[in-house]
């Protein structure tokens, strides 16, 4: 589900805001956390369940990210309970890091290694329909950073529960495209009482940022996209001027694409 898609703007976002508004009016602050966690999980699951790009359903990836969150939370808790920089803490950190990196290596590079083995030994090993899980790099490296902070003893004074940690990893404005966050950057904001109360001022600021970002994406980046595609598809017949126009257009497209997405994420947050 993309921020500029119709289903997000007219469906997911209004329903999420409505639930947030209702729970905050009732002062159900813990309910707000659970609602945002469930909403973020659905945001992630939409791509896997409905396969809008026609890539095939990958429902198992929903369980993959849930399992990843639970395992890393548990390892982080065990590291935090261990003595700072102790042998036990170090072993747990190494174990957690290996587990996280193994998942990335499998989904990103398994077919690459199999192709290499096939070319070397004339075999025909294949992993059919291996699709890269959405946002796997961001949520995996965020959790590795969390384990490192636990090893450094930075979590000993914190009492993070599983829903709070889960929302830290799954929070939908930053789940798909990052950035890689530290726990002390986001979790205090998620736990802040005032951030769980609906505010018309925050809503207005959020809508302004979201609209600016959406305008950058739709009006500038998407308008430049056909120009760039045409130039890149006809590289053999480009003139000097065409080449410079293509290079500048591509640069501006990338900038306004990422800048627009960042503004939309800030507005949503």
TrEMBL record:
Signal peptide span: none
Membrane topology: Multi-pass membrane protein
The keyword Transferase is annotated on this UniProt entry: yes
Keywords: Membrane, Transferase, Transmembrane, Transmembrane helix
GO cellular component, one term: membrane
InterPro entries per UniProt: MB_O-acyltransferase (IPR051085), MBOAT_fam (IPR004299)
Gene Ontology molecular function: acyltransferase activity
TM helices/strands, residue ranges: 6-24, 31-49, 61-79, 91-110, 130-148, 160-177
Localization in the cell: Membrane
Protein name as annotated: Alginate O-acetylation protein / membrane bound O-acyl transferase, MBOAT
């Amino acid at each position: 589900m993309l921020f500029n898609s119709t289903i997000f703007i007219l469906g997911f976002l209004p329903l999420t805001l409505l639930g947030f508004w209702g729970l905050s009016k009732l002062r159900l602050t813990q309910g707000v956390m659970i609602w945002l966690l469930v909403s973020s999980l659905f945001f992630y699951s939409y791509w896997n369940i409905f396969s809008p790009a026609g890539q095939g359903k990958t429902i198992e990836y929903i369980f993959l990210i849930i399992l990843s969150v639970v395992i890393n939370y548990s390892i982080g808790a065990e590291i935090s309970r261990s003595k700072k920089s102790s042998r036990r803490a170090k072993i747990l950190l190494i174990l957690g890091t290996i587990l996280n990196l193994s998942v990335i290596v499998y989904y990103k590079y398994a077919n690459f290694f199999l192709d290499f083995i096939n070319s070397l030994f004339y075999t025909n090993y294949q992993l059919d329909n291996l699709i890269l899980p959405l946002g796997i790099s961001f949520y995996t490296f965020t959790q590795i950073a969390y384990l490192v902070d636990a090893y450094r003893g930075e979590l000993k004074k914190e009492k993070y529960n599983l829903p709070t940690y889960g929302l830290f990893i799954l929070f939908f404005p930053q789940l798909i495209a990052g950035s890689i966050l530290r726990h002390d950057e986001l979790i205090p904001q998620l736990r802040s009482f005032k951030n769980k109360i609906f505010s018309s001022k925050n809503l207005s600021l959020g809508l302004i940022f979201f609209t600016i970002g959406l305008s950058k994406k739709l009006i500038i980046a998407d308008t430049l996209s056909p120009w760039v595609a045409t130039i890149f598809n006809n590289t053999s017949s480009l003139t000097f001027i065409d080449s410079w126009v293509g290079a500048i257009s591509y640069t501006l497209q990338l900038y306004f694409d990422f800048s627009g997405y960042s503004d939309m994420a800030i507005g949503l947050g």
